[in-house]
């Protein structure tokens, strides 16, 4: 995989760091009891605290704190037993209080790591700088009326985890792998649903370029990108834009940019604020947050098997390739499906069918494994027919297609269509004789040394048998005949 970009002055390297806002899975908001359900009528889930009414006091939601700790443990990160909520001051119509409650110098979670699963089963570690808790803002609606804008405060005050990575990524693919892995970890943990279309996971993408080995260049931050594909496209575009500017003798201004997915380009939104512009200070309405050892311990004990552990176990217990395992663990439901298929069966064959035919079919129709038209038991039934030599792998693909369409059992399809593999030596020999008789010229050529024609005869025999002859037997019997 090419990691460097070419420019007029030579090669360039991209440097990428991601800030992900992940909505905490919780029934109530971070500092109020208002509901958090997606898609509710505007302004139906707003408490006085969320509306910034004077004199209202925030009360921390214990569940949100536990979710942040759980996420921190899932990222193998340090949990800070004391953290502090700060006010980040700025004016915006969808921020009625005039400040966002966030964590600045003392976040609840410190350094951690994410392991990226790359092509071919390769892995790479990316550092997590921190995870902090903060409130989401409301939403301005500019497209409802020709002369007015509206504000929907349903989202105001919803708990977010901001997860900041180190600038450790070097390609757009790595950024994609990072987001996929982070999303799986959050989903396994049940701390964020990871739904990027609904905005419950959004990425700010920091990109700079440098000559390999040189110090980091100035970064631009592309705000609120809401799909992994767009993140990758935005990175490619932005790196190229920066290289062109520098090679033309210009300099990069640190700024906040937006990605326009329709045009496939980033454009300037505003020059970047520095932290001091926000006048951060500890929120006087909130005491420092203290997380007790007992709570950390009990959350640690309740963690499920996480993607990396699952990957290691699948490789160890089933002997499947690392790459297959890394594809399976991306969604817990996929790994569960595989394990249900592989139970008591040839595990490599099972992995091939699940990650190959089945996932390709699901991708084509945009379905999740949870609504697979072929259940694990039924796919297992098909694999059994291959393993006991009832059908060949070739015929199995046809049976699979029919299963996709009809939902029928593999066994029933094989009987109905008469697809049973022919293992009767006499029958196959008959076909071979017919093929050799019909191709006397080729047979003569073969006998005079054109060995390559062996494949031709195999092909003909398979064809004449309607694909049903056992390929191993065909090879064996054909060799005997031709030798004789
Ligand atoms: P801010 O809130 O101002 O964006 P943060 O420190 O929260 O600052 O986030 C900085 C993000 O930018 C991190 O993800 C970090 O990895 C990334 N970053 C820092 N320096 C660079 C750089 N030179 N090139 C690319 N990304 C960078
Ligand atoms: Mg930022």
Largest sheet: 9 strands, mixed
Helix content: 25-40%
Radius of gyration: 30 Å
Domains counted in the coordinates: how many? 3
Q: Indicate the mean pLDDT.
A: 95
How does the helix and strand content classify structurally? alpha+beta
What is the overall shape?
A: elongated
Heteromolecules bound: adenosine-5'-diphosphate, magnesium ion
Tally of separate helices = 15
Low-confidence stretches: none
Strand content: 15-25%
Q: What is the strand tally?
A: 16
Q: Give the termini distance in whole angstroms.
A: 51 Å
Name a few traits of the molecule:
3 domains, alpha+beta, Arc Repressor Mutant, subunit A, binds adenosine-5'-diphosphate, three-stranded antiparallel beta sheet, 39% helix, binds magnesium ion, 484 residues
């Amino acid at each position: 995989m090419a990691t460097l970009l070419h420019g007029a002055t030579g090669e360039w390297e991209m440097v990428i760091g991601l800030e992900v806002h992940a909505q905490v899975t919780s029934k109530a908001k971070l500092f109020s009891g208002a509901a958090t359900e997606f898609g509710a009528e505007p302004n139906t889930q707003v408490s006085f605290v969320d509306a910034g009414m004077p004199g209202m006091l925030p009360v921390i939601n214990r569940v949100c704190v536990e979710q942040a700790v759980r996420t921190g443990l899932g990222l193998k990160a340090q949990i800070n037993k004391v953290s502090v909520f700060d006010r980040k001051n700025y004016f915006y119509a969808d921020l009625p209080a005039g400040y966002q409650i966030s964590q600045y110098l003392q976040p609840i979670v410190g350094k951690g790591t994410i392991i990226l699963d790359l092509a071919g089963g390769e892995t790479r570690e990316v550092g997590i700088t921190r995870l902090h808790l903060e409130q989401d803002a409301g939403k301005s609606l500019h497209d409802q009326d020709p002369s007015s804008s509206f504000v929907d405060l349903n989202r105001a005050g919803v708990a977010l985890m901001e997860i900041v990575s180190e600038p450790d990524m070097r390609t757009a693919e790595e950024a994609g792998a990072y987001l996929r892995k982070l999303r799986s970890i959050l989903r396994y943990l049940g701390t964020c649903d990871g739904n990027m279309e609904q905005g419950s996971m959004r990425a700010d993408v920091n990109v700079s370029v440098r000559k390999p080995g040189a110090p980091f260049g100035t970064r631009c931050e592309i705000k609120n990108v809401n799909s992994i594909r767009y993140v990758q496209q935005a990175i490619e575009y932005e790196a190229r834009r920066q290289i062109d500017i520098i090679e033309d003798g210009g300099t990069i201004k640190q700024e906040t940019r937006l990605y326009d997915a329709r045009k496939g380009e980033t454009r300037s939104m505003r020059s970047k604020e520095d932290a001091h512009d926000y006048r951060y200070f500890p929120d006087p309405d909130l005491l420092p947050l203290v997380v007790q050892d007992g709570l950390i311990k009990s959350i640690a004990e309740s963690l499920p098997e996480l993607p990396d552990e699952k990957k290691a176990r699948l490789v160890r217990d089933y002997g499947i390739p690392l790459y297959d395992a890394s594809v399976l663990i991306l969604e817990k439901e996929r790994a569960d499906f595989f394990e249900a298929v592989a139970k008591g069966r040839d595990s490599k064959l099972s992995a091939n069918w699940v990650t190959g035919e089945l996932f390709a079919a699901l991708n084509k129709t945009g379905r999740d494994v949870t609504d697979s038209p072929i259940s694990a038991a039924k796919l297992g039934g098909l694999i059994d027919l291959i393993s006991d030599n009832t059908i060949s792998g070739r015929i199995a693909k046809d049976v699979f297609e029919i299963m996709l369409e009809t939902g029928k059992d593999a066994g029933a399809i094989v009987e109905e269509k008469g697809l049973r593999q022919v293992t009767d030596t006499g029958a196959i020999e008959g076909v071979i004789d017919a093929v050799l008789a019909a191709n006397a010229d080729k047979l003569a050529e073969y006998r005079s040394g054109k060995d390559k024609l062996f494949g031709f005869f195999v092909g003909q025999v398979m064809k004449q048998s309607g694909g049903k002859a056992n390929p191993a037997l065909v090879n064996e019997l054909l060799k005997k005949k031709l030798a004789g």
